[in-house]
Write a structure and sequence with these properties.
alpha/beta, Lysozyme-like, seven-stranded mixed beta sheet, about 25% helix
């Protein structure tokens, strides 16, 4: 992703601008003003009675943020998205979760819950900037699955940030293991991995990364210490939930089988490398393997993938 860099990655500063109260940072105020008109068109909501009727105005954002803070179970971001809209109506957002992904308009059966862009309130980049049709929309040239961490407190927040920045990704994996598909896997070239975009599928795995953000996570995430990528030293950060590690393996297996992506990781001897992968690498990798300026998704996902792939050759295809 394109953003200001920190030791933790592209989104490492996002949650610091959030609040548990109804006061938003100037950045999030501007973001909410841009995104509320999008959601009005997507969800067909009407401004609640007595609220400011300027859909792109700051006063509506403040009213939404005040409601979110009072509700207690919503992220206070001023964005009137599907979760907040359902809460305003006294309901809980519960979109239909299917057991399939979509590639080339066809359904790929899976064993885990998926909310596609076709569902009411699903997350969709269609009709927005930040993605293009692949040069080969059949998906036959797809040979790379790229894993990211998002630096956010939920996949919805990740979606809001990407949408606002004119970026995209095909898949988002939330903290509860739900997968959100926002673009067709075969046809859409998402903007998530630079020069590798046209031949890759990306997943943003929800993880706010920095330790102080654990207060927004339920249950609290484990804290791990691991080596840095692209350089020496170690650091502490929030880990993924076990369900996310399991789901990352399941996603990799499904995509490798369907697209013929090699079931290999970029290795340095017996370990997954913490450096750039060769430019011609084909298989499953991290964002840092295709960009020297990125640290995500860290190192803790690799043992599960290595174990899953160990039944076949896992030699780095240099």
């Amino acid at each position: 992703m394109v953003s200001r860099q920190t030791p933790f990655g592209a989104f490492a500063f996002v949650e610091d601008e959030m609040t548990e109260k109804a006061t938003l940072s100037p950045r999030w105020l501007r973001r909410a003003r841009r995104l509320n008109p999008y959601y009005k068109e997507r969800l067909h909501w009407s401004v609640p009675a007595g609220w400011p009727d300027d859909v792109g105005g700051a006063e509506l954002v403040r009213h939404v943020a005040a409601f979110q803070a009072e509700h207690g179970g919503l992220t206070v971001d001023g964005i009137l998205g599907p979760k907040t809209w359902e809460a305003i109506q006294g309901r809980t957002w519960d979109p239909p979760a299917r057991e399939y992904l979509i590639a080339g308009g066809e359904r790929i059966p899976v064993s885990f819950p998926v909310v596609t862009w076709l569902e009411p309130g699903g997350l969709s980049f269609y009709g927005r900037k930040g993605w293009r049709r692949r040069r080969d929309p059949s998906g036959k040239r797809v040979n790379l699955f790229v894993l990211h961490w998002d630096g956010c407190t939920s996949s919805h927040q990740c979606f809001h940030v990407l949408l606002d920045r004119g970026l995209s990704v095909q898949l988002m994996l939330d903290g509860d293991g739900t997968v959100y598909q926002a673009l067709d896997l075969a046809e859409a070239r998402a903007w998530h991995a630079g020069n590798a975009n046209d031949r890759s599928i990306g997943v943003e795995i929800q993880n706010p990364v920095r330790l102080h953000r654990n207060k927004w996570q339920k249950p609290p995430r484990p804290v791990i210490t691991e080596g840095r990528v692209h350089r020496r030293g170690s650091y502490e950060h929030l880990d993924f939930y076990e369900i996310q590690k399991q789901r990352a393996v399941e996603l990799a297996e499904v995509l490798c089988e369907h697209f013929g992506i090699p079931r290999v990781l970029p290795t340095d001897g017996s370990s997954v490398t913490n450096r750039l992968a060769p430019s011609h690498f084909r298989g499953v990798c991290g964002h840092y393997h295709v960009s020297k300026n990125k640290p995500d998704p860290g190192l803790s996902l690799w043992p599960g993938l290595q174990a899953a792939f160990s039944g076949e050759s896992n030699v780095n295809n240099q």
